[in-house]
Structure formats: structure tokens, C-alpha cells
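Dear U.,

For the methods section draft, I wanted the exact inputs and outputs in one place so we can describe them consistently. I've listed the two proteins in the order they'll appear in the manuscript figures. Please don't edit the C-alpha cell lines directly; just add comments below if something needs changing.

First protein:
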Amino acid sequence: MTSLKFVRLERQFKHLVYFDGTDAISVKRFEGRGVTKEDLSSIRDGDYVRIYGTISYDNFAKDLTCIASNVVKIEKAKTVDLAEAKRVELHMHTNLSEMDGVCDIKDIITYVYNLGHRGIAITDHADVQSLVKAYNTAQGLKKKDPERDFKVGLGM
């Protein structure tokens, strides 16, 4: 979550909430001292950043806050599978499964394809809605690279 606020006359500060996958902290970055309005507005929700700053108690927020001295955008780390023999997942549920799936079928198939795996089996509980999407997504990926052997198993 990011928000841009005005403080005293035309001076601004940016309030960010940084989440590293396990915990979150409030981050404040003030205009001035080499930080322009453009720098403040360049960071958006979902950006991957490296933050340098000082952790201190904020009397206004009544919590520990990072006062950022530098915020640098970084690229999202790409997950790679370095195994020589790639696996094939034979039991995967999607968000259309009636019981326990949470991931979108297009995201799952694209992710597995990009890891270099040879295929995946979709085994949703009590429905076949995701199977058409799975098939169409796999066909779209095959059109990009017709030489690659990638299969989607469809089941229940």
C-alpha cells in the first residue's frame, strides 16, 4: 500500500507499507535532500524495492517506522528449476475446485511451463470448469513453441 501526502506548504512525503513475505513495516520517505516529487511518485503498489533507512519509533503512528534514505526499484526474482530431470505434478487443484484449490488455472499452467516441466495434471474435485481453461492455456503455450513437448492431464 502506498500513499502520497502533503506536509507543510508544498512539501510531500510518501507512506509505504513494505511486506517481505513474512512481516510488514511502515516506511516514510520525505521530499527534499535529493528526493524529488518524481522520485516519490515513481514507486507504486506491487513494485519490488530495496529500502535503506533508519528504524525509529514514530510518535504520530505510535509504531516502529522506517525513515527511508534511499529506495531502489529492483526486478522480481524469477523462480527457476535447476533439476536435470523435471517432475510432472500429477495432483493439482485450481480455484474452481469444490474443495481446496486457491490458484488460477492460467497462472498454474504458465508457471509450470516457464519452469520447464513437461506437463501437469489438473484434478479438481467435483467439477470440470477449469479443464477447458487448462486445455486452452496449454494450446496457447504450444503455439508459441510448437517444438516443445508439454502436456496437460485432465481429470477429477
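Second protein (the one for the lower panel):
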Amino acid sequence: MLANAQKVKAVPGKKTDRADAEWLAQLLSEGHIQPSFIPDRKHRELRAIIVQRSKYIRERSAEKNRVQKILAASNTQLSNVVADVYGKSAQVLLREVLENGTPSPERIRKLLEQKKVSRRLRATPEELSAALDGVISEDTKFELRHIEAHIQFLDRQIAEYTQKIRSMLDDHEMAGVKLLTSVTGIGEDSALTLHPWMR
């Protein structure tokens, strides 16, 4: 039987190196040691994939925060006029800055007409143009392009890992995930982490 060493240490008694075997045997015979949970091979592999996916998600978040810091340092205040810097409209505007420089209000109106930028944005074209009017050097543009490429790579990795995880879950396990996501504030990422196989 495999026991949790941390829990065994918490049980009062003399547990010197010489007396360990005898003392642990006595604890076991008296029912004071609970066996550790050892997942089967499928769930060990599933856990490893979920952990790696979580690492990709954290890495993507770190890269997105890095973009926001670079924009702020360049006096590009996009986050002041859009709710989500990584929303579709914000990404179109940021790509416009990287490719063509600060868009004029007229250019932004054209993007609105082409439905590339959502009309639900509260900021006016003038306000959007002013927010994007920062000082972004060519070196900074180079860095932002490569961060964006890395984020897109991570998006693909996360999507592939998500698909793999779903293919490994049986109907009962998927029902457990859906039940957890029915709780307000718990998305699929959190549900996978909270599920019993991740303990």
C-alpha cells in the first residue's frame, strides 16, 4: 500500500529511522493510515495533458499582459477605449497600427462600414484614433508581431489539447465537467482542474 508521507508524519508518535517500519505497521493495523489515491493509466495520462494545457493557458495570459505593458509604455491607450484588448475589434485596430501606423478617424469609419470593427464600441472614431496615437518604433512593432505569432501558436496548442481531452473523457466524466461549469464563475478550464481526477 502507498501512503501519503505528509499525512503519516502528522500522526503523533515516535517515528525514528530505526522504528519506522514497526510504527507504520502498527498504524496500518489500527486503521490510522489511509491509502493514497493512485489513478489508473488513462487518468494519469489525462492529468498530464490537462496540466500541460493549463501551462499553455498561463503562458498565453503572460504574453497578453506583456502586450498591454508594451502598448502602455508606447503611450498607446487602447485599453482605455475597448473592454477587451484581445477582442476581435481591438485586434483589427492593433493590426492596423502595426501595418499602417495610427489609423485616422476616416480609416476607422471605413473599418466600421466594412464591419471589421464592431459598431457596438462606445468610443467614437476620433477617440479610437487618439487612443491609438502612440509612439511605436519599428523595433517595438517587430516585438509585438512576434508576441502575436506566439499567442496564435498557443491558441492552436490549447485548441488541440482541448480536443484531445474531450476525446479521452467518457460520457460520465463529460457530465461531471458540464455539471461543474453550471456553477457561476466556473468555466471549462476551472472545471477540468477541480474535477476529482486532478486531485
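Candidate sentences for the figure legend, describing the second protein: Residues 41 and 153 are 29 Å apart (CA to CA). The two ends are 19 Å apart (CA to CA).

Thanks,
Y.
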